[in-house]
Amino acid sequence: MVTPDAPKSVIIVGGSLAGLMHALTLLSLPSPPKVRILERSPTALLHNQGAGVVAGNETQQFFAEYVRPGRDIAVTSPARHYLNRKGEVMPESVEHRAQKMTSWDLLYHLLRWRVEGMQSEYVEGLPSDDRPKAQYENGCTVTAIDHASGSGGVKLTWTHKDHGSQSATADRVIAADGASSTIRRLLAPEVERKYAGYVAWRGTVPETQLSDSAREVFIDRFTFYHAPGLQILGYMIPGENGTLEPGKRLFNWVWYCNYAENSPELDELMTDTQGRRHAITLPVGGMTEAVLAKQKAYAKEVLPPQYAEAVQKTEQPFVQAITDNISPRNSLMDGKVLLVGDALAGFRPHTAASTGQAAFDALTMGEWLGGKISKTEYDGRVLDFAQKVQRHGVMLGERSQFGRHPLNG
User: Fold this and answer.
1) 240 contacts 322 by C-beta, under 8 angstroms
2) What is residue 60's predicted lDDT score, i.e. its pLDDT?
3) What's the total number of domains in the chain?
4) Is 363 helix (H, G, I), strand (E, B) or coil?
């Protein structure tokens, strides 16, 4: 069934998980539109940070319904627990609740494969299908967006890294270009992205490099440690090319540390080996030896020994500044432009829900364009999810980093 809202052409700005999920939803419609994806990154592949992702219910549902990969996508952690400073499991903290853990790179490669046919070792031997493909272009920086005269659509203008200024019109534009969304800045400049006062250090270690003591608390466990002004957590994720085979997986850790805005310490941390100051993410390979050595020494001082070990054995961690942003509207330009995922609301990572938001938004769009719900219901559901989880994330982060936690060891 084709609904009155079904577009014939869609431009998606942003080619990461949210953009790819929305593209696949559109390509799966009975009468799919022509889908064009404009990604700002100049490289053909988005850079793999090696980041772990909690595969929540929405993510699992999206991959089951739309990606249909023909393989498992996550490592199961049957339980979660907290450590004290000595590295002992706190018995009262043990909770037997299974959670699924995956990696950003596995999800990304599976989506690129389904959306535009990209082959990789991640998808070797997996079944193809007959859905149409999107046109995927990288190196595209959006410069303007406006109503298209005469067509009732949207005119988008961008600069291509090789071909200069370009423009195109579409029935609908989906802004999936992240928490610093260019589309949102052009249409709703009052929505700001603000630094929250702390960063996430992130890294991975091959499970075979972990000591027996570390393996005992990390394998098959979602493991936490809290202390004033810091939190660290970790879990197992797929290894090279998305393998789930025990012995070939990675241990993924995330360590939240407070840094005052505009402080010398934050400037030093976010300045790479070439002297460039990064605003949000210091990528893999960019950290100076002095900063890394200082953090590894700090890890020995303040973390349980198993976590200090994991930090020591991480060759190239990366850093993400924690920020907040939320738009009061998901629908702009009379509904022709939609903000989705982080472009709508940036969740603090304590929620483990950023990928889930992208999946939820895409699933809900599928219900709307499939005629199951109205556009008004779609808007309401997407906004409600964004607002509730964003508020919850702020609460979790403020309690963790600037308050007390009942499970301090």
Assistant:
1) no
2) 97
3) 2
4) helix
